[in-house]
Every structure is written in structure tokens, then in C-alpha cells.
Amino acid sequence: MVARTSRMMPPMEYVRLLDEDAGLDGVIAIHSTARGPAAGGCRLWSYPDPADAMADAFRLAEGMSYKNAMAGLPLGGGKAVLRRPAGEFDRVALFEAFGRAVEKLDGRYVTAEDVGTGVSDMECVARHTRHVAGRTALPGLAGGDPSPWTALGVFEAMKEAVRLRHGSSLSGVTVAVLGVGNVGAGLARLLAADGARLVIADIDPARCDRLAQETGASIVAIDEIAGADAQVFAPCALGGALDDATVAALRAGIVCGAANNQLAAPHLAEVLMARGIDYAPDYVVNAGGIINVAAEYLGESAEEVRGRVMQIGPRTRAILETAKAGNLPPPVVADRMAESLMVSPAALEEA
Ligand code: NAD
Questions:
Q1: Which residues hold NAD(+) (predicted)?
Q2: Do the Cβ atoms of 109 and 102 come closer than 8 Å?
């Protein structure tokens, strides 16, 4: 079924997925195909109410349109959200059925991993469609773990944000990193190699200890990291790290990190601006991962990935400069820029 809904502006195309035998119950949402196939991962999560799964798919698909356009990728935005079956279930059957559903869309939607799904699931999907990324990397081609690319993009964005605000390199600058998992730890290593000082916090004390030994980072409690004496705060754990309390506690003048959906509420972009804090919008700086996943689907090389990731720094600087000049919150500037890019590349050339 392909239907349209008016729950969001603009109305969003979606396909409801139901295959009782395979345990498949979900939705593929297609927000935009203006720049190319709607690309966005497949989330598997326990949603008691199907309406919640659908709302999440719409919200996430819209977010992918902004992220893909901003990253300069020839892709639109989409997302698949599957309801995790209760109890034991046949994972192979579920993802094979999902692969058949993706194939029916004939390339309008490209899937990959997201929360709750992994490489082995995408290999099941790939038995039925070629419109899938996030598989095992082939020699010489892009693919594999996107985290190092995400960390590099955040690092490049942070360098530019620091240069803009302080006129200096990262050497001697203190960065407070919340969450030192795949991306956070990678970022911390890049920062340490560049001469930055680190303060770190994570719910996993062993991760903190290992990284502190490697990089000389100081470890603080999670509820102390926002108030740490640092020039930059890098949220690299889960979403929603910037809530009213955290923003009020911040001592850093720059926020630049990998986590998705960092603002717990939209008004916090204005609160950050009112406090004189430069917020580098999350989807601009953390695009390295999607750039790598997209390159895998597009058959590009690791060098092409590096080229696109290295553009994240100057792009972040341009957004922060425009925001300052116009007295606007950087997320507003970023969204306007992304919206202007949500047209076909041919139309952009003609403009
Ligand atoms: P990860 O699971 O490897 O690391 C997350 C870390 O955060 C872990 O060390 C975990 O212990 C810690 N953590 C979880 N909850 C916490 C809390 N309440 N307080 C402090 N620490 C907490 O994940 P990742 O791949 O490093 O991704 C980190 C963030 O970046 C996520 O928000 C993710 O959506 C986003 N992101 C990741 C990529 C990527 O390429 N991996 C790309 C874009 C965005």
C-alpha cells in the first residue's frame, strides 16, 4: 500500500508493512526524493502502539532529508521503523520479508542499519534487494563501521568552531566529552593527538578508565561534565543531552558533538544563543557516518568519503558565521540551508 498522510507538512508518503508469518509489522516513510532515493536506516524497536512507530518513522525520515541534503549527498530522506515482535522471533525471516518490501519500492527507498539492527540483518535484506547499505565493506570501496568518519567530521567541525570563536587551533583547548563509545572515543583520540585537553564522562567506568590511560583525560561524574571548566562541550552519548539544566550549567562557549537530536526541546537553541554559546547543529557535524553509508550504496571510494567529510568543517563555520551575522540560532540557519538544497541537483545547477 502506498498512501499519503497530512499529519506532517508536507504530506508524507509511506508504505505500511505487514507480514504476519514473518513477524513483520512496520512502516517505510518517504519524506523526500528530490535529490535522489529516500535514504535512511531501519529501526527495530518495541512500540506497543503502531501509531508511535509511524510517528517515529515520519519524524526520522524528515530528519534524514535535512541531513542528506546538508551533507551534499544525491539522496532524499526516508526511514523504516519495524515493531519488534514480542518474545522469540525469527530474525532472518523478518529481515528477508523487509528486504522484499524494500525491493517493491524499486529504489525509491534505500535502507541501512539503525538502532536495533546490524550488519547481519542487512545481509538478510540484501538477499532480496540491492537497495541496502551498511553491509560488510568490500576491498577498496567505502563501507564498514561509520564511527571513525563520524568522529572525523565532528573533529573538523570543532576545529572550525574554535578557530571562529577563539582564533586558535585546538592545541591547549579543553574539550568535555560526554559519552566515550565508538564515536566519542574516536573523537577524543583525534583531539588528544591535536594537543587538546580532555575531560570525559560515561555511564561505563571501564571505558572512561581505558581512554583516560590512553589520552591523559580527566574523568568526571556525568552530572558534572556540562559544568566542567572547558571551552567545548561535545555530547556523544544519547539524544537530549542539552536540556534546561544542562544548558544552564554549561561553562563551555561551544557545543559540538556527535549525538543525534541533542536539543531536548527546540526552544533551547534560543537559550543557547542568549547565553552566547555557539551551538554547532548536530545533523551538520555528525554526517560523516551517513556519508560513509551513502558512499557504500553509491559505490564510491574511501577517498571520496574523506573529501565529503572534510567539507563538514567549512560548512559548520559558514553556518555559525551566518547565524552570528543574522542574530539567528544556528539550527534555524542550518534548516533553511538544508531546505534550499532539497531540490534536484539539476534544478540547483539551473538556479
Ligand atoms: P555507542 O553506543 O558506541 O556510544 C555511546 C556511549 O554513550 C557509550 O559509551 C555509553 O556507555 C554512553 N552512554 C549512554 N548513555 C549515557 C548517559 N546517560 N550518560 C553518559 N554516557 C552514556 O554509540 P556511538 O556510535 O558512539 O554514537 C554516539 C552518538 O552519536 C549517538 O547519539 C548516535 O546516534 C550518534 N551518531 C553516531 C554515528 C555513528 O557513526 N556511530 C553517526 C551519527 C550520529
A1: 179-184
A2: yes
Known binding residue 179? Answer is: yes
Superfamily the domain 13-127 falls into = Leucine Dehydrogenase, chain A, domain 1 (3.40.50.10860)
Please give the pLDDT value at position 8: 46
63 in a known ligand binding site: no
Which residue positions in the chain have pLDDT lower than 70?
1-11, 345, 347-351
Q: What angle do helix axes 312-326 and 330-341 make, rounded to 10 degrees?
A: 120
The response to whether 332 counts as a known ligand-binding position is: no
φ, ψ of residue 13 to 5 degrees: the values are -80, 140
What local confidence, expressed as pLDDT, does residue 134 receive?
A: 87
Q: Count Cβ atoms within 10 A of the Cβ of residue 180 and give its class: 0-12 exposed, 13-18 middle, 19 or more buried.
A: buried
- Residue-level length of the chain: 351
Distance 186 CA to ligand 1 centre (A): 11
Whether 104 is a known active-site residue: answer no
Pairwise CA distance, residues 116 & 132, whole Å: 16
Domain 146-286+316-337 superfamily per CATH: NAD(P)-binding Rossmann-like Domain (3.40.50.720)
Q: Is 83 helix (H, G, I), strand (E, B) or coil?
A: strand
| Nearest atom of ligand 1 to the alpha carbon of 292 | 40
Q: Which of 67, 79, 104, 324 is catalytic?
A: 79
Q: Do domains 13-127 and 146-286+316-337 have the same CATH topology?
A: yes
- Can you give the three-state secondary structure of 268-287, one letter per residue? HHHHHHHCCCEECCHHHHCC
